[in-house]
Write a structure and sequence with these properties.
Structural class: alpha/beta
CATH architecture of the largest domain: Alpha-Beta Barrel
Largest sheet: 8 strands, mixed
Number of strands: 16
Function: Catalyzes the deamination of 5-methylthioadenosine and S-adenosyl-L-homocysteine into 5-methylthioinosine and S-inosyl-L-homocysteine, respectively. Is also able to deaminate adenosine.
Shape: globular
Helix content: 25-40%
Family: Belongs to the metallo-dependent hydrolases superfamily. ATZ/TRZ family.
CATH class of the largest domain: Alpha Beta
CATH topology of the largest domain: TIM Barrel
CATH superfamily of the largest domain: Metal-dependent hydrolases
Mean pLDDT: 97
Radius of gyration: 21 Å
Catalytic activity: S-methyl-5'-thioadenosine + H2O + H(+) = S-methyl-5'-thioinosine + NH4(+); S-adenosyl-L-homocysteine + H2O + H(+) = S-inosyl-L-homocysteine + NH4(+)
Distance between the termini: 62 Å
Bound molecules: ligand LTUXU72L, zinc ion
Strand content: 15-25%
Protein name: 5-methylthioadenosine/S-adenosylhomocysteine deaminase
Low-confidence stretches: none
Cofactor: Zn(2+)
Protein backbone atom coordinates (compact mmCIF):
# COMPACT_ATOMS: atom_id res chain seq x y z
CA UNK A 1 0.00 0.00 0.00
CA UNK A 2 1.41 3.39 -1.00
CA UNK A 3 1.72 6.06 1.65
CA UNK A 4 -1.61 7.60 0.72
CA UNK A 5 -3.53 4.51 -0.28
CA UNK A 6 -6.71 4.16 1.82
CA UNK A 7 -9.15 1.26 2.26
CA UNK A 8 -12.16 3.58 2.15
CA UNK A 9 -12.87 7.28 1.71
CA UNK A 10 -16.26 8.69 2.70
CA UNK A 11 -17.11 12.20 1.54
CA UNK A 12 -19.99 13.77 3.41
CA UNK A 13 -21.85 17.08 3.34
CA UNK A 14 -21.53 17.28 7.14
CA UNK A 15 -19.47 15.32 9.66
CA UNK A 16 -20.43 15.64 13.34
CA UNK A 17 -17.17 14.60 14.97
CA UNK A 18 -18.38 14.69 18.61
CA UNK A 19 -14.79 15.58 19.49
CA UNK A 20 -13.97 17.83 22.46
CA UNK A 21 -14.66 21.02 20.48
CA UNK A 22 -17.84 19.52 19.00
CA UNK A 23 -16.87 20.45 15.45
CA UNK A 24 -19.30 19.87 12.59
CA UNK A 25 -17.18 19.72 9.43
CA UNK A 26 -18.70 20.69 6.07
CA UNK A 27 -17.79 19.04 2.77
CA UNK A 28 -15.10 16.89 4.34
CA UNK A 29 -13.80 13.40 3.74
CA UNK A 30 -13.08 10.70 6.31
CA UNK A 31 -10.26 8.38 5.31
CA UNK A 32 -10.07 4.80 6.63
CA UNK A 33 -6.98 2.60 6.79
CA UNK A 34 -6.79 -0.72 8.62
CA UNK A 35 -10.20 -0.12 10.18
CA UNK A 36 -9.22 3.20 11.75
CA UNK A 37 -9.67 6.84 10.83
CA UNK A 38 -6.46 7.89 9.07
CA UNK A 39 -7.46 11.41 8.06
CA UNK A 40 -10.26 13.97 8.15
CA UNK A 41 -9.82 16.73 5.63
CA UNK A 42 -11.71 18.93 3.15
CA UNK A 43 -13.08 16.84 0.30
CA UNK A 44 -11.17 18.79 -2.34
CA UNK A 45 -7.86 18.06 -0.58
CA UNK A 46 -8.74 14.39 -0.06
CA UNK A 47 -9.08 13.89 -3.80
CA UNK A 48 -5.51 15.17 -4.24
CA UNK A 49 -3.92 13.43 -1.28
CA UNK A 50 -5.60 10.02 -0.95
CA UNK A 51 -6.35 7.12 -3.29
CA UNK A 52 -8.75 4.30 -2.74
CA UNK A 53 -10.72 1.72 -4.71
CA UNK A 54 -13.64 2.38 -2.36
CA UNK A 55 -14.92 5.95 -2.46
CA UNK A 56 -18.40 6.81 -1.16
CA UNK A 57 -19.86 10.26 -1.88
CA UNK A 58 -22.70 11.31 0.43
CA UNK A 59 -23.57 14.79 -0.77
CA UNK A 60 -26.75 15.22 1.30
CA UNK A 61 -25.75 13.24 4.38
CA UNK A 62 -24.65 13.82 7.91
CA UNK A 63 -21.94 11.42 9.08
CA UNK A 64 -21.87 10.78 12.84
CA UNK A 65 -20.05 8.35 15.11
CA UNK A 66 -21.92 5.04 15.33
CA UNK A 67 -24.50 5.28 18.09
CA UNK A 68 -23.72 3.49 21.37
CA UNK A 69 -26.78 1.92 22.97
CA UNK A 70 -25.53 1.79 26.56
CA UNK A 71 -28.20 -0.58 27.88
CA UNK A 72 -30.38 -3.16 26.25
CA UNK A 73 -31.46 -6.80 26.44
CA UNK A 74 -31.07 -7.62 22.74
CA UNK A 75 -32.68 -11.06 22.66
CA UNK A 76 -35.81 -9.62 24.28
CA UNK A 77 -36.72 -8.42 20.77
CA UNK A 78 -38.47 -11.79 20.56
CA UNK A 79 -40.68 -10.69 23.50
CA UNK A 80 -41.62 -7.30 22.03
CA UNK A 81 -45.31 -6.70 22.69
CA UNK A 82 -45.80 -9.75 24.92
CA UNK A 83 -46.87 -7.60 27.89
CA UNK A 84 -47.56 -3.88 27.60
CA UNK A 85 -49.07 -1.12 29.73
CA UNK A 86 -47.93 -2.62 33.02
CA UNK A 87 -45.72 -1.34 35.84
CA UNK A 88 -42.23 -2.84 36.20
CA UNK A 89 -42.78 -5.49 38.87
CA UNK A 90 -46.05 -6.82 37.40
CA UNK A 91 -44.43 -6.84 33.95
CA UNK A 92 -41.38 -8.72 35.25
CA UNK A 93 -42.89 -11.13 37.77
CA UNK A 94 -46.17 -12.00 36.07
CA UNK A 95 -45.14 -11.96 32.41
CA UNK A 96 -41.45 -11.63 31.51
CA UNK A 97 -39.80 -13.96 34.02
CA UNK A 98 -42.35 -16.74 33.41
CA UNK A 99 -41.86 -16.40 29.62
CA UNK A 100 -38.08 -16.35 30.00
CA UNK A 101 -38.25 -19.39 32.28
CA UNK A 102 -40.15 -21.29 29.62
CA UNK A 103 -38.49 -20.18 26.38
CA UNK A 104 -35.04 -18.68 26.87
CA UNK A 105 -32.32 -20.96 25.47
CA UNK A 106 -29.09 -20.58 23.50
CA UNK A 107 -31.12 -20.65 20.27
CA UNK A 108 -33.61 -18.04 21.56
CA UNK A 109 -30.75 -15.69 22.43
CA UNK A 110 -28.99 -16.26 19.12
CA UNK A 111 -32.17 -15.63 17.05
CA UNK A 112 -33.30 -12.73 19.24
CA UNK A 113 -29.91 -11.03 19.14
CA UNK A 114 -29.82 -11.36 15.34
CA UNK A 115 -33.25 -9.70 15.16
CA UNK A 116 -32.04 -6.93 17.46
CA UNK A 117 -28.77 -6.54 15.54
CA UNK A 118 -30.70 -5.98 12.30
CA UNK A 119 -32.87 -3.36 13.99
CA UNK A 120 -29.84 -1.69 15.57
CA UNK A 121 -27.86 -1.50 12.32
CA UNK A 122 -30.89 -0.09 10.51
CA UNK A 123 -31.22 2.65 13.14
CA UNK A 124 -27.58 3.71 13.42
CA UNK A 125 -26.26 1.76 16.41
CA UNK A 126 -22.80 0.25 16.01
CA UNK A 127 -22.06 -0.72 19.64
CA UNK A 128 -24.50 -2.00 22.23
CA UNK A 129 -24.26 -2.89 25.90
CA UNK A 130 -26.29 -6.01 26.54
CA UNK A 131 -27.40 -7.69 29.74
CA UNK A 132 -28.92 -11.06 29.02
CA UNK A 133 -28.75 -14.82 29.39
CA UNK A 134 -26.41 -17.02 27.30
CA UNK A 135 -23.93 -14.27 26.37
CA UNK A 136 -21.92 -16.73 24.24
CA UNK A 137 -24.90 -16.96 21.87
CA UNK A 138 -25.26 -13.18 21.89
CA UNK A 139 -21.54 -12.84 21.11
CA UNK A 140 -21.84 -15.23 18.16
CA UNK A 141 -24.79 -13.29 16.72
CA UNK A 142 -23.00 -9.96 17.31
CA UNK A 143 -19.82 -11.02 15.56
CA UNK A 144 -21.79 -12.41 12.63
CA UNK A 145 -23.67 -9.10 12.37
CA UNK A 146 -20.37 -7.19 12.48
CA UNK A 147 -21.38 -5.03 15.47
CA UNK A 148 -19.45 -4.35 18.65
CA UNK A 149 -20.96 -5.30 22.00
CA UNK A 150 -20.24 -5.14 25.69
CA UNK A 151 -22.00 -8.20 27.08
CA UNK A 152 -22.82 -8.10 30.79
CA UNK A 153 -23.23 -11.64 32.10
CA UNK A 154 -26.29 -12.03 34.29
CA UNK A 155 -26.15 -12.74 37.99
CA UNK A 156 -29.18 -13.34 40.21
CA UNK A 157 -29.78 -15.10 43.51
CA UNK A 158 -32.23 -17.54 41.91
CA UNK A 159 -32.11 -20.14 39.13
CA UNK A 160 -32.93 -19.29 35.52
CA UNK A 161 -32.60 -21.29 32.28
CA UNK A 162 -28.93 -20.30 32.24
CA UNK A 163 -27.78 -21.24 35.72
CA UNK A 164 -28.64 -22.64 39.12
CA UNK A 165 -27.41 -19.75 41.25
CA UNK A 166 -24.63 -17.22 41.83
CA UNK A 167 -21.69 -19.68 41.67
CA UNK A 168 -22.90 -20.92 38.30
CA UNK A 169 -23.41 -17.42 36.91
CA UNK A 170 -19.98 -16.27 38.09
CA UNK A 171 -18.26 -19.27 36.52
CA UNK A 172 -20.08 -18.72 33.21
CA UNK A 173 -19.09 -15.06 33.26
CA UNK A 174 -15.40 -15.71 33.88
CA UNK A 175 -15.41 -18.45 31.20
CA UNK A 176 -16.84 -15.92 28.72
CA UNK A 177 -14.21 -13.37 29.75
CA UNK A 178 -11.46 -15.94 29.03
CA UNK A 179 -12.97 -16.83 25.69
CA UNK A 180 -13.37 -13.27 24.38
CA UNK A 181 -10.35 -11.61 25.96
CA UNK A 182 -8.54 -11.18 22.62
CA UNK A 183 -11.41 -10.02 20.43
CA UNK A 184 -11.60 -6.21 20.28
CA UNK A 185 -15.24 -6.32 19.14
CA UNK A 186 -16.56 -8.08 22.23
CA UNK A 187 -16.12 -6.93 25.80
CA UNK A 188 -17.46 -9.05 28.66
CA UNK A 189 -18.54 -7.62 32.00
CA UNK A 190 -20.62 -8.59 35.04
CA UNK A 191 -24.35 -7.85 35.05
CA UNK A 192 -25.77 -8.35 38.55
CA UNK A 193 -29.45 -7.78 37.78
CA UNK A 194 -30.60 -5.36 40.52
CA UNK A 195 -30.22 -4.69 44.25
CA UNK A 196 -33.52 -6.55 44.89
CA UNK A 197 -32.38 -9.76 43.13
CA UNK A 198 -28.75 -10.06 44.23
CA UNK A 199 -27.62 -10.38 47.83
CA UNK A 200 -24.44 -9.04 49.42
CA UNK A 201 -22.18 -12.10 49.17
CA UNK A 202 -22.40 -12.51 45.36
CA UNK A 203 -22.09 -8.75 44.93
CA UNK A 204 -18.86 -8.82 46.92
CA UNK A 205 -17.57 -11.59 44.65
CA UNK A 206 -18.52 -9.56 41.57
CA UNK A 207 -16.57 -6.60 42.91
CA UNK A 208 -13.46 -8.65 43.70
CA UNK A 209 -13.48 -10.38 40.30
CA UNK A 210 -14.29 -7.18 38.37
CA UNK A 211 -11.30 -5.44 39.95
CA UNK A 212 -9.01 -8.44 39.43
CA UNK A 213 -10.03 -8.88 35.78
CA UNK A 214 -10.46 -5.15 35.13
CA UNK A 215 -13.95 -5.43 33.64
CA UNK A 216 -17.05 -3.21 33.97
CA UNK A 217 -20.20 -3.94 35.96
CA UNK A 218 -23.75 -3.05 34.93
CA UNK A 219 -26.78 -3.09 37.22
CA UNK A 220 -30.38 -1.80 37.21
CA UNK A 221 -30.39 0.64 40.15
CA UNK A 222 -33.16 2.80 41.66
CA UNK A 223 -35.48 2.07 38.75
CA UNK A 224 -38.71 2.67 40.68
CA UNK A 225 -39.87 4.23 43.94
CA UNK A 226 -41.24 0.79 44.91
CA UNK A 227 -37.74 -0.73 44.77
CA UNK A 228 -36.56 1.81 47.32
CA UNK A 229 -39.59 1.47 49.61
CA UNK A 230 -39.15 -2.31 49.62
CA UNK A 231 -35.44 -2.06 50.48
CA UNK A 232 -36.00 0.52 53.20
CA UNK A 233 -38.83 -1.62 54.63
CA UNK A 234 -36.65 -4.76 54.68
CA UNK A 235 -33.25 -3.37 55.68
CA UNK A 236 -33.70 0.27 56.67
CA UNK A 237 -31.29 1.21 53.89
CA UNK A 238 -31.74 2.66 50.39
CA UNK A 239 -30.20 0.43 47.69
CA UNK A 240 -27.61 3.02 46.64
CA UNK A 241 -26.39 3.32 50.24
CA UNK A 242 -26.06 -0.46 50.36
CA UNK A 243 -24.08 -0.53 47.10
CA UNK A 244 -21.82 2.23 48.42
CA UNK A 245 -21.23 0.21 51.61
CA UNK A 246 -20.23 -2.79 49.49
CA UNK A 247 -17.76 -0.63 47.53
CA UNK A 248 -19.56 -1.00 44.22
CA UNK A 249 -19.90 2.67 43.34
CA UNK A 250 -16.95 3.53 41.11
CA UNK A 251 -16.05 4.37 37.48
CA UNK A 252 -16.37 0.61 36.87
CA UNK A 253 -20.14 0.70 37.48
CA UNK A 254 -22.83 1.60 34.95
CA UNK A 255 -25.93 2.28 37.06
CA UNK A 256 -28.94 1.91 34.79
CA UNK A 257 -32.17 3.95 35.27
CA UNK A 258 -31.53 5.91 38.50
CA UNK A 259 -34.95 7.53 38.45
CA UNK A 260 -35.04 8.10 42.22
CA UNK A 261 -32.14 10.16 43.56
CA UNK A 262 -31.76 12.61 46.42
CA UNK A 263 -29.33 15.52 46.09
CA UNK A 264 -26.94 13.70 48.46
CA UNK A 265 -27.08 10.59 46.26
CA UNK A 266 -26.30 12.67 43.17
CA UNK A 267 -23.22 14.01 44.96
CA UNK A 268 -22.22 10.44 45.91
CA UNK A 269 -22.58 9.22 42.31
CA UNK A 270 -20.50 12.18 41.10
CA UNK A 271 -17.79 11.72 43.73
CA UNK A 272 -17.42 8.00 43.02
CA UNK A 273 -17.26 8.47 39.23
CA UNK A 274 -20.19 6.08 38.72
CA UNK A 275 -21.73 6.30 35.24
CA UNK A 276 -25.50 6.61 34.79
CA UNK A 277 -27.37 5.08 31.86
CA UNK A 278 -30.56 6.98 31.10
CA UNK A 279 -33.36 4.91 29.47
CA UNK A 280 -36.16 7.47 29.16
CA UNK A 281 -38.60 5.56 26.95
CA UNK A 282 -38.59 2.36 29.00
CA UNK A 283 -38.90 4.40 32.19
CA UNK A 284 -41.85 6.35 30.76
CA UNK A 285 -43.63 3.31 29.37
CA UNK A 286 -43.34 1.36 32.64
CA UNK A 287 -44.34 4.56 34.48
CA UNK A 288 -41.19 4.28 36.58
CA UNK A 289 -40.22 7.96 36.46
CA UNK A 290 -37.07 9.36 34.86
CA UNK A 291 -33.48 10.16 35.71
CA UNK A 292 -32.88 13.82 36.61
CA UNK A 293 -30.53 14.24 33.69
CA UNK A 294 -29.87 17.96 33.95
CA UNK A 295 -28.99 17.69 37.64
CA UNK A 296 -26.71 14.72 36.90
CA UNK A 297 -24.93 16.57 34.12
CA UNK A 298 -24.52 19.66 36.27
CA UNK A 299 -22.96 17.49 38.98
CA UNK A 300 -20.38 16.30 36.42
CA UNK A 301 -21.74 12.75 36.09
CA UNK A 302 -21.21 10.94 32.80
CA UNK A 303 -24.72 10.16 31.52
CA UNK A 304 -25.03 7.66 28.66
CA UNK A 305 -28.19 6.71 26.77
CA UNK A 306 -29.85 3.31 26.38
CA UNK A 307 -33.10 1.94 25.04
CA UNK A 308 -33.49 -0.94 27.53
CA UNK A 309 -35.05 -4.03 25.91
CA UNK A 310 -37.67 -4.09 23.17
CA UNK A 311 -40.14 -5.69 25.60
CA UNK A 312 -40.31 -2.45 27.61
CA UNK A 313 -39.47 0.29 25.08
CA UNK A 314 -40.69 -1.17 22.51
CA UNK A 315 -37.91 -0.46 20.01
CA UNK A 316 -34.13 -0.13 19.84
CA UNK A 317 -34.19 3.23 18.07
CA UNK A 318 -31.44 5.43 19.48
CA UNK A 319 -32.40 8.43 17.33
CA UNK A 320 -35.92 8.35 18.79
CA UNK A 321 -34.45 7.80 22.26
CA UNK A 322 -32.21 10.85 21.85
CA UNK A 323 -35.21 12.99 20.92
CA UNK A 324 -37.21 11.69 23.89
CA UNK A 325 -34.26 12.40 26.20
CA UNK A 326 -33.96 15.97 24.92
CA UNK A 327 -37.70 16.71 25.14
CA UNK A 328 -38.01 15.13 28.58
CA UNK A 329 -35.07 17.13 29.96
CA UNK A 330 -36.66 20.35 28.70
CA UNK A 331 -40.15 19.40 29.87
CA UNK A 332 -39.18 18.51 33.43
CA UNK A 333 -36.73 21.37 33.97
CA UNK A 334 -38.95 23.93 32.21
CA UNK A 335 -35.72 25.14 30.58
CA UNK A 336 -35.76 25.09 26.77
CA UNK A 337 -31.95 24.99 26.66
CA UNK A 338 -31.75 21.83 28.76
CA UNK A 339 -29.99 18.97 26.93
CA UNK A 340 -29.37 20.65 23.56
CA UNK A 341 -29.11 18.56 20.40
CA UNK A 342 -25.29 18.46 20.36
CA UNK A 343 -25.22 17.27 23.98
CA UNK A 344 -27.77 14.52 23.41
CA UNK A 345 -25.79 13.29 20.40
CA UNK A 346 -22.73 13.14 22.66
CA UNK A 347 -24.80 11.22 25.21
CA UNK A 348 -25.74 8.71 22.49
CA UNK A 349 -22.14 8.24 21.34
CA UNK A 350 -19.07 9.35 23.30
CA UNK A 351 -20.65 9.18 26.76
CA UNK A 352 -21.71 5.58 26.13
CA UNK A 353 -18.21 4.72 24.94
CA UNK A 354 -16.79 6.38 28.07
CA UNK A 355 -19.12 4.48 30.39
CA UNK A 356 -17.95 1.22 28.81
CA UNK A 357 -14.28 2.25 29.05
CA UNK A 358 -14.06 2.09 25.24
CA UNK A 359 -13.67 5.81 24.47
CA UNK A 360 -10.04 5.50 23.37
CA UNK A 361 -11.34 3.48 20.44
CA UNK A 362 -14.91 4.54 19.67
CA UNK A 363 -17.53 7.23 20.36
CA UNK A 364 -16.19 10.10 18.21
CA UNK A 365 -14.78 10.58 14.74
CA UNK A 366 -11.15 11.47 15.37
CA UNK A 367 -7.92 10.39 13.72
CA UNK A 368 -6.68 7.13 15.24
CA UNK A 369 -10.09 5.93 16.42
CA UNK A 370 -11.99 3.01 14.93
CA UNK A 371 -13.98 3.90 11.82
CA UNK A 372 -17.38 3.23 13.42
CA UNK A 373 -19.78 5.64 11.75
CA UNK A 374 -23.23 6.04 10.26
CA UNK A 375 -24.67 8.25 7.54
CA UNK A 376 -28.06 9.92 7.74
CA UNK A 377 -29.71 11.24 4.57
CA UNK A 378 -31.10 14.69 5.33
CA UNK A 379 -32.35 15.28 1.79
CA UNK A 380 -35.94 14.38 2.61
CA UNK A 381 -39.01 16.55 2.73
CA UNK A 382 -39.10 15.95 6.48
CA UNK A 383 -35.56 17.27 7.05
CA UNK A 384 -35.14 20.12 4.57
CA UNK A 385 -33.93 22.79 4.58
CA UNK A 386 -30.94 22.23 6.87
CA UNK A 387 -29.69 25.07 9.06
CA UNK A 388 -28.18 22.87 11.76
CA UNK A 389 -27.61 19.22 10.77
CA UNK A 390 -27.26 17.93 14.34
CA UNK A 391 -30.50 19.63 15.42
CA UNK A 392 -32.12 18.19 12.31
CA UNK A 393 -30.98 14.69 13.28
CA UNK A 394 -32.22 14.95 16.86
CA UNK A 395 -35.42 16.95 16.39
CA UNK A 396 -36.68 15.99 12.91
CA UNK A 397 -35.05 12.89 11.42
CA UNK A 398 -36.24 9.31 11.84
CA UNK A 399 -34.31 6.07 11.92
CA UNK A 400 -35.22 5.12 8.35
CA UNK A 401 -33.02 7.99 7.19
CA UNK A 402 -29.90 6.08 8.28
CA UNK A 403 -28.51 4.85 4.96
CA UNK A 404 -25.02 3.51 5.72
CA UNK A 405 -23.22 1.94 8.65
CA UNK A 406 -19.57 0.97 9.10
CA UNK A 407 -17.85 -0.76 12.01
CA UNK A 408 -14.06 -0.70 11.91
CA UNK A 409 -14.40 0.46 8.31
CA UNK A 410 -16.46 -2.59 7.36
CA UNK A 411 -19.78 -1.73 5.71
CA UNK A 412 -22.76 -3.28 7.54
CA UNK A 413 -25.42 -1.36 5.62
CA UNK A 414 -25.18 0.14 2.14
CA UNK A 415 -28.08 2.34 0.94
CA UNK A 416 -30.24 0.57 3.60
CA UNK A 417 -29.28 -2.91 2.44
CA UNK A 418 -27.87 -5.05 5.25
CA UNK A 419 -24.62 -6.62 4.10
CA UNK A 420 -23.97 -9.09 6.92
CA UNK A 421 -27.45 -10.34 7.86
CA UNK A 422 -30.12 -12.35 6.08
CA UNK A 423 -33.26 -10.28 6.69
CA UNK A 424 -35.67 -12.90 5.33
CA UNK A 425 -34.27 -15.61 7.60
CA UNK A 426 -34.32 -13.32 10.65
CA UNK A 427 -37.97 -12.46 9.97
CA UNK A 428 -38.92 -16.10 9.48
CA UNK A 429 -37.26 -17.10 12.76
CA UNK A 430 -38.96 -14.24 14.63
CA UNK A 431 -42.35 -15.35 13.35
CA UNK A 432 -41.65 -18.94 14.34
CA UNK A 433 -40.77 -17.85 17.88
CA UNK A 434 -44.00 -15.84 18.06
CA UNK A 435 -45.99 -18.93 17.12
CA UNK A 436 -44.19 -21.07 19.69
CA UNK A 437 -44.60 -18.53 22.47
CA UNK A 438 -48.18 -17.46 21.67
CA UNK A 439 -49.14 -21.12 21.10
CA UNK A 440 -47.91 -22.08 24.56
CA UNK A 441 -49.94 -19.28 26.17
CA UNK A 442 -53.26 -20.69 24.85
C1 LIG B 1 -30.11 -10.67 34.32
S1 LIG B 1 -30.59 -10.85 32.63
C2 LIG B 1 -31.61 -9.48 32.46
C3 LIG B 1 -32.92 -9.60 33.17
O1 LIG B 1 -33.42 -8.32 33.31
C4 LIG B 1 -34.76 -8.31 32.95
N1 LIG B 1 -35.14 -6.94 32.61
C5 LIG B 1 -35.37 -6.42 31.42
N2 LIG B 1 -35.67 -5.11 31.52
C6 LIG B 1 -35.62 -4.82 32.85
C7 LIG B 1 -35.83 -3.66 33.60
O2 LIG B 1 -36.16 -2.51 33.05
N3 LIG B 1 -35.70 -3.72 34.92
C8 LIG B 1 -35.38 -4.87 35.53
N4 LIG B 1 -35.19 -6.02 34.86
C9 LIG B 1 -35.30 -5.99 33.54
C10 LIG B 1 -34.83 -9.28 31.84
O3 LIG B 1 -36.13 -9.67 31.58
C11 LIG B 1 -33.94 -10.39 32.37
O4 LIG B 1 -34.63 -11.26 33.20
ZN1 LIG C 1 -32.72 -3.25 31.54
Amino acid sequence: MSDHQADLIVHARWIATVSADNTVLENHALVVRDGRIADLLPSALADEKWHSDEIVRLDDHLLTPGLVNAHTHAAMNLLRGIADDLPLMTWLEKHIWPAEGQFVSEQFVYDGTKLAAAEMIRSGTTTFADMYFFPASAAKATVEAGLRASLFCPLLDFPTPMGAGPEDYLRLATDAMDEWRHDPRIQIGFGPHAPYTVSDAPLQKVLTLAEELDVPVMMHVHETAGEIQMAVGNTGERPLTRLQGLGLLSPRLLAVHMTQLTDEEITLVAETGTHVVHCPESNLKLASGFAPVEKLRQAGINVALGTDGAASNNDLDMIGEARTAAFLAKGVSLEADALPAADVLKMATLNGAKALGRDEDIGSLEIGKQADMVAIDLNRLETQPVYDPVAQLVYAATRDQVTHSWVGGRCLMNHRQLTTLNEALILKNAQQWQQTIAGAEK
